[in-house]
C-alpha cells in the first residue's frame, strides 16, 4: 500500500492546475470554493456534491475599531436576518438569478 504525500500550497489558486496536470490527486477545501472552482474548471468534480465532510463556519477579521465593528455587526445581523446574505451567496455561486435579492 502506498502512502500519500501531503503537499501544502501557500497559494491555493495553484492547486487546480496541479490537479488538471495530474501532479496532485485531491484537494480539501470548503464548500464555497468547491462550488466556485467546479464551475470554473469543468474538468474537475466535487466529491460527494452537496454533502460536507464537516460543519464549518466562516468568520470575518477586521481592524480593531469598536465603532466600525459595531457598524459591521449591525449590518451583518440585518443581512443575515432578512435573507440578503443567503441570496448574495446563492447569486455568487450561481444558485439564484441576478435580481433575486430581497428588498
Brief characterization of the structure:
41% of the residues lie in helices and 0% in strands.
Structure commentary:
41% of the residues lie in helices and 0% in strands. It has 103 residues and is mostly helical. The chain has helices spanning 15-21, 31-40, 66-81, 84-92. The mean pLDDT is 82. It contains 4 helices and no strands. It starts with 14 loop residues before the first helix and ends in an 11-residue tail after the last helix. It has 2 domains: 1-56, no CATH class; 59-103, no CATH class.
Provide the residue-averaged pLDDT.
Answer: 82
- As for the number of domains, it is 2
Q: Which stretches are poorly predicted, pLDDT < 50 over at least 5 residues?
A: none
- The number of E-state strands comes to 0
Order of helices and strands: HHHH
Radius of gyration: 18 Å
Q: In what range is the share of β-strand residues?
A: under 5%
CA-based shape:
elongated
Structural class: mainly alpha
Number of helices: 4
Largest β sheet strand count, sense and barrel closure:
none
Helix content: 40-55%
Task: Write the SSE topology.
Layout: H1 15-21, H2 31-40, H3 66-81, H4 84-92
Descriptive terms for the model:
single chain, 103 residues, mainly alpha, 2 domains, 4 helices
